[in-house]
Each structure stands twice: as C-alpha cells, then as structure tokens.
Amino acid sequence: MLEKKDSLVVVLTSGDKEVAMKMVFMYTFNSRLKEWWDDITLIIWGPSAKILCNDHEMQNYIHNMLENGIKVEACITCANMYGVAKDLLDMGIDVKPMGPVLTQYVKENRHVLTF
Length: 115
What we know:
By secondary structure, the protein is α/β, with parallel strands linked by helices. Helix content is 51%, strand content 21%. It has a five-stranded parallel β-sheet, with helices on both faces. α1 packs parallel to α3 (56-67). The model has no long low-confidence stretch (mean pLDDT 95).
C-alpha cells in the first residue's frame, strides 16, 4: 500500500497585496520550510495574477517559493483577461486552464484553502 501524502493547495484570488504577502505567501512558504505538508501547490487566479505581475516584492516571494519546491500554477483564462500570461510564464509559473485542475485536486481529497 502506498503512503498517502499530505497535499495542500492554496488558491489566491484576492487582488489585495496585504492578503497575499501577510497571510497567503507567509503560510505557503513556511509550510514548505517547516515541512507541515509533503506537497504544496499555490494557484494564482483572478485579480491576484494582475497584482503579482505589477509588484517586484511579490515576484521575489514567488521566485523563492519555486526555488524551495512549491508548485506555482496560474489560470490561463484569467491571465489572458489581464494580459499577463507571458509575464507569469516568464516567472516560471505553470499557466494553464485551472478549472479542470482544481476539480481534480478536490476529487483527490487534497486540502484546499482559498483566499
């Protein structure tokens, strides 16, 4: 029998930098550093894509997350609406249709937090 991994998916939809920096990014990053979860994915969705692409401090945080093994994904539809798909890709973010992906995460019984 395979050992079940503790998987966390954090969905950031808020266009509020303070929510992103002071809660979502801190928790997600510390979850990796302190090994609270085996597998961590951050999803950038909606207005969060726009603020991320306009803020170097947030971009640096994302870079550190990627370097520390956190998967970062973004919704291609939202990214295209805001004209930032290329910017997200250039940051190393996996930009793709997220509806089916999030649905699969939920069906796999991953822990999903949304902000």
